[in-house]
Amino acid sequence: MTVRVLLVDDQPLLRVAFTLVLDSQPDLEVVGEADDGAAAVRLAAEHRPDVVLMDVRMPGMDGIEATRRIVDDSPDTKVLIMTTFDLDEYAFAGLRAGASGFLLKNAQPAELLSAIRSVAAGDAVVAPRITRRLLDQFASQLPANGTSAGGGEAAVEALTARERSVLAQVARGLSNAEVAAELFLAEATVKTHVSRILLKLGLRDRVQAVVFAYENRLVRPS
Q1: Binning pLDDT at 50, 70 and 90, where does residue 190 land?
Q2: Which among 83, 171, 188, 195 could bridge 91 via Cys, Cβ 3.0 to 4.6 Å?
Q3: How far apart are CA 45 and CA 197, in angstroms?
């Protein structure tokens, strides 16, 4: 199946570069380009892309607000934040707004293509440890009490004790295999637990699960 991509960046040369890379792939198609957040929201509603490559620092409506509106309007559309720095408050805000991950703008073409395909398949593209480092850096911006989209304390109570343990390990930056070793479980069992956690909390992917865990103080900044 062809993955339909919307490009959002206020720099025309970057959009051209990304288009050249994506159009070279038989399974990827650029369905539109936008130079600001407002245009991104409009084009996302019009084209319903599978993935939006979203710049965050743009004049007018920035990529954070655009991400929030796109995700609210079309939950099946995945947003991949593009940022210049791996520890960027805008990238952090993008994750909280509903993005499925972030990618550095200087990423190699192969990394860009892999990220788009992974996001389209429903996976997070940010390595868990990088996500944790980002959240640790900006933990002071998190609310004192859980107020996440998943429902805060009530959502946490809906999880079993084992699911809470698995979620805490995921938020520490562990892979499924590492969680399995830590909790003496089979890796397939951990994968099942993660799927159930996402379903119960109404979350899109592991990145959102990590944000939820931090917001609800299931883990503490290191």
Answers
A1: very high
A2: 83
A3: 29
